[in-house]
Structures are given as structure tokens and as C-alpha cells.
């Protein structure tokens, strides 16, 4: 009698472990992929109006040590990095800084030899993993801006820190990370330009 043909399909007992292994592989692959975020922060606060149309030179600087904010896993050597590139971020911060100065009653310009002048520097933008609670993970974000106003031989410098934390069961997607960083940077911009000392010095 001819020998029976081998069954190419795994038995039901084997299918579940194979399916679980496949899903785990896909999940790990997704968790190890880098995120390049395209953020678009906005100044949304009501700003103190102290200018009378004076020209103010506005300059935005990326003062970060690295364009990498951190990693999605919290491990330093992980390939799942989160990055916001300076060449995309700085023009958007520049546009928002100019709009903020305009709302404060001044006429923004980019002439570097003009005074009064305002320099806004993004000193730090970090994304780390917090301690969280059992079962859940936690993303901890921090942004630090520094604003320097110069007018008539006087300089005023302010430092503004924004922080937020977000608990999660599944690691945030690219869209969720983009939203969190947007909110963080927007809050940092609001804190910076709400400082009444900036407008007071520029208006002298």
C-alpha cells in the first residue's frame, strides 16, 4: 500500500504557539523602529501687549546637544529612537516667535544687527521612560527654552521649563508621540512669551 502523504499544515496544537511567535515578532519589530517626528508647535496663550510697533530682531536657535530626544523603550542603546530634526523644527519655532512678538505689539525683523532683539533658544527636548505604575509604562517629556532680550545696553534672560508625563499600556505610536511633543513645545512657547519682563525690556 502507498505510504500516506505528509500533512503540510501544522497541527492545531502547534498553530497557536506559531501565531503567538509571529505576533510577538511583529510587535518587537514595530517597537524597535525609529520615530522621526514632524512637529508643528503653536503659541496659543494670550500675551501681554507692551510694544508700540517698534522693530524687534527675532532669532531662534536650536541649542540641543542632539536631535534625538530619547528612545521609545527607555534603553540608551535601543534602535527605537525618537528624533526631531533641527532643519524642520527651527523654521516653525521662528515663525511662532515672530507671531508672538507681533501679538506683543512689536514688528518682528530678522536683521541681526538691530536692537532691540530677542533670541529664543531651545536648550533641551527630552523623552524618557518614567517609573510608571504596575502593568503600565510612562513617557516623561521635558522641554527647556531660554529667551534673551537685549535693548539699550540691558539684557534680560529667562528660562522656561515644560514637563508632561503620559501613562500607557502599549508604547505610544508615532502620531501619539508627535501630539505629545507638539503640546510640550507649545506650552514652552506660551511660557516664554507670557513673561512680562521680556516685553517690558523690548519696549524701553
Give a quick summary of the entry:
With 204 residues, the protein is α/β, with parallel strands linked by helices.
Detailed description of the structure:
There is one protein chain. This protein has a five-stranded mixed beta sheet with strand order 5-2-6-7-8. The chain is α/β, with parallel strands linked by helices and 204 residues long. It has four helices and eight strands; from the N terminus they run H-E-E-E-E-H-E-E-E-E-H-H. The protein has helices spanning 12-31, 86-103, 174-193, 196-202, and strands at residues 35-36, 55-62, 68-71, 81-83, 107-109, 117-129, 137-151, 154-168. The chain starts with 11 loop residues before the first helix and ends with a helix.
- Could you give the distance between the termini? 105 Å
Work out the helix count.
4
- From the alpha carbons, calculate the radius of gyration and give it in angstroms: 25 Å
Main beta-sheet annotation: 5 strands, mixed
Strand portion, in percent? 25-35%
In terms of structural class, how would the helical and strand content be classed?
alpha/beta
Regions with pLDDT < 50 over 5+ consecutive residues? 22-30
- Shape type: elongated
Give the mean pLDDT: 86
Number of β-strand runs:
8
**Strand neighbour order, sheet with most strands:** 5-2-6-7-8
Q: State the helicity in percent bands.
A: 25-40%
Order of helices and strands: HEEEEHEEEEHH
Amino acid at each position: 500500500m502507498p505510504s500516506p502523504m505528509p500533512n503540510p499544515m501544522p497541527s492545531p496544537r502547534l498553530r497557536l504557539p506559531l501565531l503567538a511567535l509571529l505576533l510577538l515578532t511583529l510587535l518587537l519589530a514595530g517597537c524597535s523602529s525609529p520615530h522621526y517626528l514632524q512637529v508643528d508647535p503653536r503659541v496659543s496663550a494670550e500675551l501681554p501687549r507692551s510694544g508700540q510697533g517698534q522693530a524687534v530682531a527675532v532669532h531662534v536657535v536650536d541649542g540641543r546637544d542632539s536631535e534625538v530626544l530619547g528612545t521609545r523603550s527607555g534603553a540608551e542603546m535601543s534602535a527605537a529612537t525618537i528624533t526631531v530634526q533641527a532643519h524642520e523644527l527651527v523654521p516653525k519655532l521662528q515663525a511662532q516667535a515672530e507671531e508672538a512678538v507681533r501679538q506683543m505689539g512689536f514688528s518682528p525683523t530678522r536683521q541681526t544687527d538691530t536692537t532691540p532683539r530677542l533670541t529664543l533658544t531651545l536648550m533641551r527636548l527630552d523623552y524618557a521612560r518614567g517609573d510608571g505604575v504596575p502593568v503600565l509604562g510612562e513617557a516623561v517629556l521635558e522641554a527647556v527654552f531660554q529667551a534673551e532680550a537685549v535693548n539699550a545696553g540691558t539684557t534680560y534672560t529667562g528660562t522656561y521649563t515644560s514637563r508632561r508625563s503620559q501613562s500607557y499600556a502599549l508604547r505610544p505610536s508615532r502620531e501619539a508621540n508627535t501630539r505629545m511633543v507638539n503640546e510640550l513645545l507649545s506650552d514652552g512657547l506660551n511660557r516664554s512669551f507670557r513673561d512680562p519682563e521680556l516685553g517690558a525690556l523690548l519696549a524701553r
